[in-house]
Amino acid sequence: MANWLDNLRAAAPGRITTSMAERTQHGRDAAHDEPQLPDAVAYPLTTEEVAAIVRVCAEYRQPIIPFGVGTSLERQVSAPLGGLSIDLSRMDRILEASAEDMDARVEAGVTRERLNAELRTQGVFFPVDPGANATLGGMTATRASGTNAVRYGTMRTNVMGLTVVTPRGEVIRTGGRARKSSAGYDLTGLYVGSEGTLGVITEIQLRLHPLPERFAAAVVPFPTLRTAIESVIAAFQLGIPVARIELLDETSVSAVNRHSGTAYAESPTLFIEFHGGPAGVDEQVAQFREIAAANGGGEFAWAERPEDRSRLWKARHEAFWAAKELRPGAGILTTDVCVPISRLADCILETRADLEQRGLLAPILGHVGDGNFHAMIFFDPTDGREATSAQDAHDALIRRALAMGGTCTGEHGIGAGKRQYLALEHGPAVDTMRQLKTAFDPDGIMNPGKMFL
């Protein structure tokens, strides 16, 4: 009698593998080296093939773990119960792109960089930029955001519709191309951020934006974290439409300098970018200069040529990898709390003081324009005392953010790493989430072990 793997091979001939190397690759994410391996990996080419694969897994009640390129950070792609990793990277067609309607439909395996390369000549772009060249399917599943979210919003506001394969192997379409609709439940919003626990996203309808006429990016140092953060708060109180505004503490800047060959002043620093017409950008820059000067900001290092801006943002996006070089081989707890911007300075400074008191190395950086910041807490995994101290600092940070009206995760998601904090943040509402999960996935085969304890 054929087993589930035999039936999978019949459903997707030549695209099912049980190779140890590929299973290992698909059992871990960008932040963790300890893999939890699936039993097999599938590489479907079409939505219909995904549906056929899912129907086999449903028949045998085998776990299904959707996989993009593995850039998530909370173990969303691990396979604690084995099963099948469905790698959607070969579903990489841009199905439609309309500059007139400012929307595009893509398969889940299209990466954001590839989409923007295709769109460049049409005068539009897709703005959500989490740093990594992630797939748009994975970005949708984790409700990604990143450096441009302060102006253009997150995946939640930029996804208009989806094609989803349900846990029973049915294909449904949610949303559409209309800019607004009052028709029925917002299933699109429910699937965005569901982390593969409700179905497999295979196509995404995306909102595009006009390509700005002018870009101006700069790096500006400040004497303290507080003065840098107060500059951010002042900019938004004045309504300056900053496109990106990122904070790196002095430790992060030092790491970036060594990793990227830059020579930024090693003090708390803002990476900023303005978009618009020439006159509008000049006005934004003048306003922000005044704010920075009032808070002791140093000289602005400007970048307007595309290659200079790319270098600047490449250095910022590689801050995670740069920081890892500060203590090779150490374990890292990555955090991504988000608080109301009025509490941002308090949350960051209290976090910094706590980490210093514990003697922990923990660079701080983040998308401070929307109150989101990260602390990378290093620890020796062989030193039980230090590992416990790091976990306690991580726990204290999340509880501090929640007490300030914030969230345990601004963009990384829950995965397997923050399940206990979902209940702490949402209380009885988590029971409603569980009921939805059970209604959509009664056999519990979709990405088990994630989001809920």
CATH class bucket of the largest domain: Alpha Beta
> What share of residues are in beta strands?
15-25%
- Regions with pLDDT < 50 over 5+ consecutive residues? none
Number of domains: 4
Radius of gyration: 22 Å
- Secondary-structure-based class equals alpha+beta
**Total count of strands:** 18
- Mass-distribution shape: globular
CATH topology title of the largest domain: Uridine Diphospho-n-acetylenolpyruvylglucosamine Reductase, domain 3
Number of helices: 17
What portion of residues is helical? 25-40%
Overall CATH architecture of the largest domain? 2-Layer Sandwich
Query: How would a crystallographer describe the biggest sheet?
Result: 7 strands, antiparallel
Order of strands across the main sheet: 15-12-14-13-17-18-16
Overall mean confidence score, pLDDT: 95
Comma- or semicolon-separated keywords:
19% strand, 17 helices, 37% helix, Alpha-Beta Plaits, Uridine Diphospho-n-acetylenolpyruvylglucosamine Reductase, domain 2, Uridine Diphospho-n-acetylenolpyruvylglucosamine Reductase, domain 3, 7-stranded antiparallel beta sheet, alpha+beta, 4 domains, 453 residues, 5-stranded antiparallel beta sheet
